Amino acid sequence: MKLYKVLAVVLNSRQMRDAHRILTLFSKERGKIKVVAHGVAKPTSRKRGAVQPFSVTDFLLRRGRELDSISQCEGREFFPGLVADLDKMLYAGHVAELVDALTMDGDPHGDVFVHIVKTLRELDKTADPELVARWFEMQLMAMLGYLPGLSSCVNCGGQVNGPIARFSARAGGLVCSRCAGSAGGISCNRGTVAVMQTLLNWDINKINRLRVSQSCRFQMRAIMREYLQWHMEKLSRSLQFMDKLNSFKPGV
Ligand SMILES: [Zn+2]
């Protein structure tokens, strides 16, 4: 069969020659797929809206020798709140980059698809996009088998005592004071560990009830950056851009 249907989120879109684009989709049925979208950059193209990054779209795809291409598409869900807010847009970009970097082409992950859509919906309306992004990071790590160890020491299995633990990206989670010497790591309060575990266990529609202190946010930001960077081999471009913007803001 030369044609097949998928429901997918557009993760990103790259310009090709003429008015063509290469899209990276994350589909419910087949995981990540790269496809050619012919002529969509033309102002008259009726497919334009449905192929924008972060759209959730029904695609009819045609198999090709190298890349499959879009035969038909119809946008199902859009998130106008992302376009109107730079922070939200950057966090959505970060979500897309994480999925692109950490999943393989054609490896189906229906759970990841559902979580991306939930995250985009929440980012669209939330007043706290950073916490929504942290929720997605924790959930994605769990779904892909990269979840950091947050109970006992990941190095020796011993108890992690005291109000402040250390988190080592290289070791894969919390380390006890004895192991921290060799594994290094970032300071991580008990409260921060508790919030990370809550993000893992709660559904996204409950997280706006969480009250998270600035120091906890700061620690989670540092921990997740180091941890994701360890797995992705680089920080997402969206977070790099956010860092650059924040360096111009007074008091951040
Ligand atoms: Zn240890």
TrEMBL record:
<dbReference type="InterPro" id="IPR012340">
    <property type="entry name" value="NA-bd_OB-fold"/>
</dbReference>
<protein>
    <recommendedName>
        <fullName>DNA repair protein RecO</fullName>
    </recommendedName>
</protein>
<dbReference type="Pfam" id="PF02565">
    <property type="entry name" value="RecO_C"/>
</dbReference>
<dbReference type="Pfam" id="PF11967">
    <property type="entry name" value="RecO_N"/>
</dbReference>
<dbReference type="GO" id="GO:0006302">
    <property type="term" value="P:double-strand break repair"/>
</dbReference>
<keyword id="KW-0227">DNA damage</keyword>
<dbReference type="GO" id="GO:0006310">
    <property type="term" value="P:DNA recombination"/>
</dbReference>
<comment type="function">
    <text>Involved in DNA repair and RecF pathway recombination.</text>
</comment>
<dbReference type="InterPro" id="IPR022572">
    <property type="entry name" value="DNA_rep/recomb_RecO_N"/>
</dbReference>
<dbReference type="InterPro" id="IPR037278">
    <property type="entry name" value="ARFGAP/RecO"/>
</dbReference>
<comment type="similarity">
    <text>Belongs to the RecO family.</text>
</comment>
<dbReference type="InterPro" id="IPR042242">
    <property type="entry name" value="RecO_C"/>
</dbReference>
<keyword id="KW-0234">DNA repair</keyword>
<feature type="domain" description="DNA replication/recombination mediator RecO N-terminal">
    <location>
        <begin position="1"/>
        <end position="77"/>
    </location>
</feature>
<keyword id="KW-0233">DNA recombination</keyword>
<dbReference type="InterPro" id="IPR003717">
    <property type="entry name" value="RecO"/>
</dbReference>
<dbReference type="GO" id="GO:0043590">
    <property type="term" value="C:bacterial nucleoid"/>
</dbReference>
